[in-house]
Design a protein that fits this description.
By secondary structure, the protein is α+β, with helices and mostly antiparallel strands. Helix content is about 30%, strand content about 20%. The chain contains 5 helices and 8 strands. The strands form 3 sheets. The chain has a 4-stranded antiparallel beta sheet with strand order 5-6-2-7, with helices on one face. A two-stranded antiparallel sheet has the order 1-8.
């Protein structure tokens, strides 16, 4: 996000954090008019998988195959299929937390639907419907796969990185942000309890 303002950097940052309690602006830096927001050095996506994998070892082995330069024809939409389409992927990793497992994908750029297709591939490997050798061949550009696309709701654009010095730093949430997120937390707790109560009698 680029903002033109005569105000000093710290004041701009405080003003941005007053726009909506649902949005946090944590850093700011001056840039010239030629700066392009879309030319980021890195993007990090996280996908919350609430159901843990049945075979975590398969997931980890499959995730490691994505590191490096890969053909993304099997992992997007609207991509020409007559020749490999290469993208650099920094890493695909699985992180377990109390709320579930995060699948984290780091890369300079993505094609549309790429993260959700990667999640779909990991699920197929976990279920035994996709072998590691077939996945490796697809990533190397030697074949194409037809993969399911994971649902969009658990996907979060977690971080966008730029080669910039960030001289202005967020001082922490203001009272409106604190109140808003406390309300969100309480509502989430209520929803979780209601869902747990309603589904407790469902057959497993």
């Amino acid at each position: 996000m680029i903002v033109e303002s005569p105000l000093a950097g710290p004041v701009v940052l405080r003003s941005l954090n007053g726009l909506s309690p649902a949005v946090f602006f944590t850093h700011a830096a001056p840039v010239d008019r030629g700066f392009r927001v879309r030319q980021a050095d890195r993007r990090v996506y996280r996908f919350l998988e609430t159901d843990p994998p049945s075979h975590p070892d398969r997931w980890m082995e499959a995730a490691r195959l994505f590191s490096g330069r890969v053909d993304v024809r099997s992992f997007g939409r609207g991509i020409p299929i007559d020749r490999p389409q290469w993208r650099d992927v920094e890493s695909v990793s699985l992180r377990s937390e109390s709320t579930g497992s995060w699948i984290e994908v780091r890369a300079p750029s993505f094609v549309w639907g790429m993260v959700r297709k990667i999640v779909g591939a990991l699920r197929e490997v976990d279920a035994g419907r996709l072998g590691l050798a077939d996945l490796s061949q697809a990533l190397a550009g030697r074949r194409r796969l037809t993969l399911p696309m994971a649902e969009p709701e658990p996907l979060v654009l977690w971080e966008v990185g730029y080669t910039l010095d960030w001289p202005y730093h967020w001082a922490g949430p203001n009272r409106h942000q604190v109140r808003y997120w406390e309300q969100q937390r309480q509502e989430a707790v209520v929803r979780e309890r209601v869902i747990g109560t309603v589904t407790s009698g469902f057959p497993r």
